[in-house]
């Protein structure tokens, strides 16, 4: 089967996931619990001022910071015990550019659908069972949309409740992806 015959399900599934994700985040609002205020407004302002004074460029900053070889140093162990322990992500200054983020998200959705189409093209035929089409493309989409949440919970300290909400999203996106591929799969 030529890969060109899968462009319609690739593009349609990417757009469908993008639209469904917009609805999930704007209507259901269950991701409001993903972010918390740092103390009260005065505390937040003081922390912001301290970070501003340090002048960090965009990046991820562990606190306390130490080289791996220094992890067992008593002074560093004391810093870890006293806390706080965390990862601070610094973005570029300025209001969030939602157009940019939504465009990048659409690009990621396209990449996931393109990869699902690539794998499906090499594992399925034009006469494949529709349920098998949904399983293959949906499973790959679930891995792509969901497993990064688990990695962030393990290594970046994302709360497991946030990761679980991300996995629920991934499950919904994978069903959408699989259904679109199933419905638009090229006929034999």
Describe this structure in words.
The protein is mainly alpha-helical and 188 residues long. It contains six helices and two strands, in the order H-H-E-H-E-H-H-H. It has helices spanning 7-28, 41-54, 74-82, 98-123, 130-155, 160-184, and strands at residues 59-63, 86-90. The longest helix is centred in the middle third of the chain and has 26 residues, at 98-123. 19% of the residues are buried. The model has no long low-confidence stretch (mean pLDDT 94).
Overall pLDDT level:
94
Count of DSSP H/I helices:
6
Strand order of the largest sheet: 1-2
- What percent of residues are in strands? 5-15%
Shape: elongated
Low-confidence stretches: none
What are the secondary-structure elements, in order, as H or E?
Answer: HHEHEHHH
N- and C-termini, Cα separation: 9 Å
Structural class: mainly alpha
Please describe the biggest sheet, giving its number of strands, its sense, and whether it closes into a barrel: 2 strands, antiparallel
Multimer state:
single chain
Number of strands: 2
Summarize the SSE layout with pairings.
Elements: H1 7-28, H2 41-54, E1 59-63, H3 74-82, E2 86-90, H4 98-123, H5 130-155, H6 160-184
Antiparallel strand pairs: 1-2
Keywords:
188 residues; mainly alpha; two-stranded antiparallel sheet; 6 helices
Please outline what is shown here.
This protein has 188 residues and is mainly α.
């Amino acid at each position: 089967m030529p890969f060109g015959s899968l462009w319609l399900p690739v593009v349609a599934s990417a757009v469908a996931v993008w639209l469904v994700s917009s609805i999930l985040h704007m209507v259901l609002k269950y991701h409001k619990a993903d972010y918390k205020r740092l103390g009260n407004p005065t505390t937040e302002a003081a922390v912001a001022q301290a970070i501003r004074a340090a002048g960090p460029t965009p990046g991820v900053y562990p606190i306390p910071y130490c080289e791996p070889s220094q992890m067992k140093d008593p002074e560093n162990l004391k810093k870890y015990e006293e806390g706080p322990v965390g990862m601070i992500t610094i973005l570029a200054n300025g209001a969030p550019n939602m157009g940019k983020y939504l465009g990048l998200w659409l690009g990621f959705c396209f990449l996931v659908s393109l990869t699902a189409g690539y794998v499906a093209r090499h594992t399925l035929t034009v006469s494949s069972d529709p349920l098998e089409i949904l399983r293959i493309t949906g499973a790959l989409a679930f891995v792509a949309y969901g497993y990064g949440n688990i990695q962030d919970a393990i290594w970046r300290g994302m709360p497991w409740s946030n990761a679980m909400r991300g996995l629920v999203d991934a499950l919904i996106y994978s069903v959408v992806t699989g259904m679109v591929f199933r419905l638009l799969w090229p006929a034999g």
